[in-house]
Amino acid sequence: MSSPALGCVADDYTGGTDVAAALRRAGLRTVLLFGAPPADMVVSDCDAIVVSLKTRTAPVDEAVAVSLAARRWLVEQGVSRIYLKYCSTFDSTDKGNIGPTVDAFLEAGGAALTVVCPASPEHGRTVYQGHLFVGDRLLSESPMRHHPLTPMTDSDLVRVLGRQTPQPVGLIPHEVISRGGDAVRDALDDLKHRGVRHVVTDAVGDRDLDAIARATAHLPVVTGAAGLARATGALLASDAVAEEGDTQLPEGPAIVIAGSCSAATLEQVARARRSMPSYRLRPESKDMIEGALRWLEAHLGDGPVMVYSSAPPEERLPDSAELLEQALAAAARHAVELGARRVVVAGGETSGAVVSALGVASVVMAAEEDRGVPWVLTSGVPRLALLLKSGNFGRPDLLVRAVDAT
Ligand SMILES: Nc1ncnc2c1ncn2[C@@H]1O[C@H](COP(=O)(O)OP(=O)(O)O)[C@@H](O)[C@H]1O
Ligand SMILES: O=C(O)[C@@H](O)C(=O)COP(=O)(O)O
C-alpha cells in the first residue's frame, strides 16, 4: 500500500473543505479530518489527507503547537509533502498565525524557503505586485476590511507578513511568473541564496498557479489557498479520477446555521429569509440560546429552517463573537437531536464551532454544491450531510438551493 503523497494542514474548517474539494477535483483520493487526529489514528488508501484545524484566530503559540502536531502526524502517515492552507483573503491579525506557522513548518521540514500564495483566481482572489485583490478591489477596500475577527486593512502581503515574522520576505512578480515554471524556479533559487524564507508569488490566473506548482514541486513545504493546492494536486494525480463511494445525501429535515457576516453571506441569508422560517440570534437578549432551542422545537420538520446571527457592521454587538458561536453550535446540535439530517453552515469559525458540537472527526467527500463548497457526509449514526460554506463563497441562492427551499 502506498503512502499519501500530500498532507494538508488547514487553519479552519471551511478552508479544509475548500482545499479537500480542490484536491478531489484534481483527481486525488482525499480524506478530510476535523480537529487534531489522535496519535494512534491511521489513514490508508488515499492520495491526500487534509487535517482541518481551528487555528486562524487562536493565540500564536497555540496555533503553532497544534499545527506542528498535525504536521508531525501527517509525516507519520508517510506523506512526503506538506501543504499549509490559509484563507484566500489571508485572514489574520498583525499578531497573526500565518508567518509563525510557516516559520515553524520550514524549520520542522528542514526547508530553506517556501512560497506564500493565497491567490485563488476562480474565486476572484488574485495577487499582483504582492497586493491581494478581491475581484476588482484591493483586499483593504473589499468587505474584508469589516471582518468581525480578522479585519484586513492592508493589501500588501509582503508588508502584512513582515509584521508576522522576523524572517526575510521576498516577492516574485508577475513579470517572472508569466515566463513559466523554470523562470520561477530560478527566481526561487536566487532568493534562497539571498536568505529569503517567505516568497510571496504573484498569480492572476490558473496558468500562473500551474507554473508556481511546477517550480515548487521539489519543496517539502508549500503554502497557499486552494488554488495552488489544486495545481499541486494535478501534478501529483495519476490518470485515475478520484473514486466515488456512496455519496447520496441522507433524507431528513434541513437547517441553515449562519454566523458569517461577509457580504456574500449577508446576501445569501437575505434570500434564505424570504424562502424559509428563520430565527435571528440577538446577543443582547439574556435567554438567547434557550429562545433559539424552543423556536427550533416549534419549527423544525415542517420544511427547512434557518438560525442566524449574520449582520452588517452597524448592527453587530462588539465582543459577542464567541457567545454567538456557542449559540449557533447549540442550535445545530439541538436540531440534529430533533431529527435534522442536512446541516448547512455559513462561516469558517461558525463551522468549527458546529462541527465540534456535533462531535464529527472525519467525513467522506461528496459533490460540490458551489465551487469550493462540497457536501461532506459523516460516517456515524445518524449519518449527516454537512455543507460548510466559507463566508465569502457561493452564489446568492446557495443556502436556499442547499436545503431545497426553492
Ligand atoms: N451579529 C454579530 N455580531 C458580532 N459578531 C458576530 C455576529 N454574527 C456573527 N458574528 C461572529 O463573526 C464571526 C464570523 O466568522 P466566521 O464564522 O469565520 O465567518 P467568515 O467565514 O465570514 O469569516 C464569528 O465568530 C461569529 O460568531
Ligand atoms: O481560502 C478561502 O477563501 C477559504 O477556503 C477559507 O479559508 C474560508 O474561510 P472563511 O471565509 O472564514 O470561511
TrEMBL record:
One of its GO terms (molecular function) is kinase activity. Residues 255-399 form the Four-carbon acid sugar kinase nucleotide binding domain. Residues 6-231 form the Four-carbon acid sugar kinase N-terminal domain. It is an enzyme of class 2 (transferase). It catalyses: 3-dehydro-L-erythronate + ATP = 3-dehydro-4-O-phospho-L-erythronate + ADP + H(+); 3-dehydro-D-erythronate + ATP = 3-dehydro-4-O-phospho-D-erythronate + ADP + H(+). Its EC number is 2.7.1.217. InterPro entries: 4-carb_acid_sugar_kinase_N, 4-carb_acid_sugar_kinase_N_sf, NBD_C, NBD_C_sf, OtnK. Keywords: ATP-binding, Carbohydrate metabolism, Kinase, Nucleotide-binding, Transferase. The keyword Transmembrane helix does not apply. Catalyzes the ATP-dependent phosphorylation of 3-oxo-tetronate to 3-oxo-tetronate 4-phosphate. Belongs to the four-carbon acid sugar kinase family. This is 3-oxo-tetronate kinase. The lineage of its organism: Bacteria, Bacillati, Actinomycetota, Actinomycetes, Streptosporangiales.
